[in-house]
Structures are given as C-alpha cells and as structure tokens.
Amino acid sequence: MSFEEISHTADVKIRVHTLTLNALFSETCDALMQVMYGKSREGSIRKVVDLDAENLEDLLLDFLSEVLFVSEVEGFVFSNVKVKINGLHLHAVLLGEKFSQKKHSGGTEVKGISYSGLSISHNANGYIVDILFDV
Amino acid sequence: MLQGVIRVGTYEWEVPIGTIPGMRVPGRFFLSESLEKILEPGAVQQLANVAAMPGIIKNSLAMPDIHWGYGFPIGGVAAFDLTEGVISPGGVGFDINCGVRLLTTPLLKKDIAGRKDLIDQLFNAVPTGVGSKSTLRVNAQALDGMMIKGARWAVDAGFGVSKDLERCEEKGTMKDANVQAVSSKAKQRGTPQGGTLGSGNHFLELQVVREIYDEGAARAFGLTKDQICCMIHCGSRGLGHQVCTDHLKVLETATKKYQIKISDRQLACAPISSPEGRSYFGAMAAAANYAWANRQLITDTTRKVLTKMYNINYEDMPLVYDVAHNVAKFEEHDVDGKRVKVCVHRKGATRAFGPYSHDIPQELTAIGQPVIIPGSMGTPSFVLVGTKTAMERTFGSTCHGAGRVMSRTQAKKRFSGREIASNLAKEGIIVRAPNESAIADEAPEVYKPSEEVVRVVHEVGLSHLVARLEPLGVIKG
Fold first, then answer.
1. Strand B56-70 vs strand B72-81: parallel, antiparallel, or unpaired?
2. Does B69 touch chain A (CB under 8 A)?
3. Do B132 and A112 touch (CB under 8 A)?
C-alpha cells in the first residue's frame, strides 16, 4: 500500500507514489476501494476493464469512474487489481467479492472522481498522482 | 485575511479583479472575524477561478460557509448571462440537488421522551450507508417518472399528499428535464436507490423546536416551540453522480471546442444555449427531479413509522419546505435596474427568495421563502426566511449549512465514533449509523459552528432567523 491521504476539508484527496505506471493505476484503484469499503476485502470473482483515452489523466479518471460504476451497480468490492497500460490503452483485471453490509460498511460512498488538480507526474523515482474523490 | 483580499464591510470581503489573471468580475464573500480565521486560500482561489468564467454577472459570490471544494468553492453562487454565459457541472457538483427538507409533526418533546425505539424504527425503515438498496421496486417507467416529474411522481404514486409539492422549491419538479440526456449507466445506478439516504454528511434527524425568533413567520411555516420535527438531508444518489461524471467528459471537449479558458478542469463548461450546455442542463434537471422524488419517498417512510407508533394522521405531518443545495437554474433577477433571466449556479448554497418573489407558496407570499439550514451532527439546525436583500445582493441566495473545517482523515484520527455517540447520548441525542467511522467523520467538531454561519447571514440580511431546532435523534448516512 503506497497511498496517503492529503488533508482536504470537504472531500478525500489521495496521493499515490509508485515505481511504475501500471502500479500507479492499480494502487489508486485500491485506494478508492479502501475509502469506500474499508480494508477487509478479498475474493476471486473476476472483472475485466478495457479503456482508451486521450491522455493518462483521462485514462485514470475513466478507469476509476468505471470501477465505481461496476462496484455500485453489480455490488462488487474489489481487493486485487492488475493493470497493464500500453500507450493510452488500459487493460485491467479486477478480483473481488460480492458486497456484504456486515463486512464492507467501514467506508464512505464516493460520489465521483474529480478533475480538480488531477495530474500525473513522472520523475526518476517513479510516478505520482494527486486525486480527489467527492464523498 | 489573505493577501489581496479587501474588507469592504463588517461581514463583507472583496477579491478584486486581477487577483488571478482573466477575472471578469470581482469576487465577494461574507464572513465574520471568527470564521475568517478558518478560511482556506484554496477556497478564495476557487472563488476567483469562477470570476474568470465567460458571461458571469456582477460578482462571483460565496456565503459564510465558504470552503474548499472542487470547481466552485462550496458556498459558491454565480449567475450567468444567457447569451454570453456558460453552464458548468463544477457549479453544481456530483450530488445534483443534494438538499434538505423539514417535516413537522403534532408531537411535543414530552411525547417522545425516552423513545429510543422511534430512532431504531426509523433506522430500520430508511435504507442508509454504503451499498444500501431500496425495498422499492422501480421499473424503467417509474424511473422515467421520477426523472420527469420529481416529487410529483412520488405523490401521484401514493407517497405523499399534493400539499407537499406546494412546499418544495420548484414545486419539486424542474420542467426541462431531458431523460434522453441521462445515460443508461446513470439509470442503472438510480434504479435500486429510490428512497435511500446514502452516506457521508447525509442524515435523517429528529429535532425539537427549541427557540422561536420570529413568531409570525414561524406560525406561517407551521412551527411552534417544543414541537417535534424531522429533517431529511440527501440528494440524487448514484444517478446524479453518474450524470455529473458523464457530462463532465462531454463538457471537457466542449470547453476546447468553444475555446473557453478555465483555470480548473472541473470548471469544464459550455455556452448555455449550445447543444452540450442544453444536454447537461436537461440531464441535471432529471437528476434534480430524482432527488426530489427520493426525499419525498423518505418522507413517506418517515410518516408511516410515526403514524404506526403514535397513531398520527398522515396529513398532520406537513412539510415546512424543501430546498436544493447543488443546482443550476434559470431565474429572473434585477440586474442594473432591468429584469433579466439568468442561469444561477448554487454549489452548497440555498435559494432564499424574499417576499413577493415568484415560485414561493401562495400563503407565504408576504413572508418569504422558508430556508432550512441543517447543523452538523449534534448541533442546532435553523429555519430562516428569504429576504429582499438576498434578491438584491446574492441572486436570492444564502448559506447551506455549517461547512467543514477538518478533513475526514483528521477527524478519524482524532475522534472515536463510539466516544462521540456516547457523549451525544449524555446530552440526550441518540445516534444510529451503519458504522462507527461514519460517526467520527461527521463529529460536531469538524464543522464550523452553525450558529455563527447563520448569525452572519442574518446580520447581513441575506435571510432572517425564524427558529432554532436541536437534535434528539440522528440517523447517519
């Protein structure tokens, strides 16, 4: 786990720092799941997401918005996310379980992923993103 | 105060043109000295960003509950010219028509003393928290009904009485809803959630009218001292969130297409009359209607619990009013001596129309629109009344609540949900929530004092105090 919450009064702002771009996407997705459902997540139900976008920020926002949608509509809580980015194409395999009120009510609903201040930067130490979830 | 911000009145501050490049109008906000100390630079920056948007009229405004959000600051209000101006989801938010309504009962405090079972019954009856689903079966036709007719759909389906509609902003229905502009994804999210509270700062609260400040207005609103009321705070659920997500993407492209300069991507926008602008407005109106239907469904559930436990007639629990906090609307206002139709965005702000305005209940014409200001968990809520000053100064707008001062992370570190619940219980306030961290997130200390925010709008005259209500039981989302 390599994300931290940055203080933001109204919403949840997350900073994720990873060595690779693939890990940046999977860790950010894991952060989203943790905010929504807490830490207790497991399971082997498989979902696949494929997406294209015009730039990396849009790809990340579209990916997280899609995960949010699938999670809410199909009632899935994901615990393991593997992401492969090729150019501006994303292929993600998500593993998880069905939502259980008893097990997964430790978090808070995320309403949307904001464009506000969203930027992915890259340096010799890897990739960093700051991203805001409206809760 | 922050550098460059000028004090122009006891409670009034200006962010001059030029504070950031491209500002078309000055920013204005209302704050007291004690609230000033907790103002974040990010919120002022956001107020200035809005002032740079095309077609903005008079001022980029913020109410005393101003705080750092995304796009507009929370507490932000801006009106746009219909020809030159733009419409933006950044001025509405993800939770379209998040709002609040107040329901009265014929019960007095003594009637419910010691009745913890009432809170338990309400908690069991109203689905709440992450992942909660409604017991109501909504088919595609009913969902369209919710989006087109709003609260009227719920009343027609037997979940209320027609008088409820008179006591809702827009009578609970925005007329220009366009269900074709609502994606299938948004509809899928909305289908299982009708009548659910959601999570975060949403709540259902049993309150007692502790103090009346304006006897005449209180009487007209149906409020008396020691009366038990019920406040419902929630929005358009996943349907509204998805409408925002979908249309932000479309408007991002439109911002480039129409060569509009914005300082924050969340302010993505399009000219009001453009196809993209009209499409967003139609979808937003549909989501706003869904929210009104949703609050009406929760009202019905609440009334049924009270009817069953106290043998009260359903009709004896009338609404005081229902207001939207996050919405863009076409309204007529006086601008430079002329009556003009403008597009008002309110992001965490409440409409507060004064006496003799259009769209206020006929019996309240001479008094003004009721304004409902929820407190945070364990702190007082207020009923105010809209004023002529608000019509002149803020496009008929006032504050929407207390406004946070502490992040959720800090709150979780500092407070324990169990401890807060036990402290509130000592004060006679029962809290029920799906989990303890939801209680810590919304601890009374994480909000600005609601009394101070309300005092400022009262002093400035943006709305006037009518009554103070204190919580007895809270159901947290």
1. antiparallel
2. yes
3. no
Query: Which residue shows structure tokens 């419409």?
Result: B87
User: Per-residue pLDDT tens for A92-113?
Assistant: 999 999 999 888 887 889 999 9
Q: Where are the domains of chain B?
A: 6-87+96-405+447-476
Cβ atoms of B29 and B366 within 8 Å: the answer is no
pLDDT per residue as tens digits for the range B9-47? 999 999 999 999 999 999 999 999 888 888 889 999 999
CB B418 within 8 Å of CB B385: no
The partner residues of B211 in beta bridges, in order of sequence, read B468
Per CB-CB distance under 8 Å, the chain A contacts of B69 are: 10-11
CA distances from B74 to B47, B269, B326 (A): 9, 18, 9
The identity of residue B56, as a single letter, is: I
Percent over 90 (pLDDT), chain A: 76
Query: DSSP per residue over B323-346, as a string?
Result: EESEEEEEEEEEETTEEEEEEEEE
Are the CB atoms for B160 and B229 separated by under 8 Å? Answer: no
**Three-state DSSP state, B244:** helix
Residue with tokens 């001022």: B59
Kindly compute the dihedral angle of the four CA atoms of residues B365, B284, B245, A31, in this order, to the nearest 10 degrees: 30
Output the six-digit token pair for B363. 């019996």
DSSP letter, residue B20: S
Task: Note the ipTM here.
Answer: 0.91
Q: Which two tokens stand for residue A38?
A: 């807490």
Give chain A's domains with CATH numbers.
3-134 (3.55.10.10)
Strand duo A89-98 + A45-52: pairing:
antiparallel
Which residues 6+ apart lie within 8 Å of B352 measured at CB? Answer: B368, B369, B371, B384, B385, B386, B387, B390, B394, B396, B397, B398, B462, B463
> Which stretch of B3-17, B150-164, B276-290 has the lowest confidence by average pLDDT?
B3-17
Nearest to A9 among B67, B265, B266 (CB): B67
Structure confidence at residue B409 (pLDDT): 76
Question: Do the Cβ atoms of B175 and B283 come closer than 8 Å?
Answer: no
Tokens read off for A49: 């997401």
Closest by Cβ to A5, choosing from B245, B409, B437: B409
Question: Is the torsion defined by CA of A56, A57, A63, A64 positive or negative?
Answer: positive
Residue of chain B whose Cα is closest to the Cα of A117: B264
Asked about B325 being catalytic, the answer comes back as no
**Per the structure block, which two tokens stand in for B245?**
């997500």
Give CATH superfamily name and number for B6-87+96-405+447-476: tRNA-splicing ligase RtcB (3.90.1860.10)
Give me the residues of B, 236-255, that contact A with CB < 8 A: 238, 241-242, 244-245, 248-249, 252
- B166: pLDDT strictly greater than 60: yes
CB contact under 8 Å between A101 and B185, yes or no, is: no
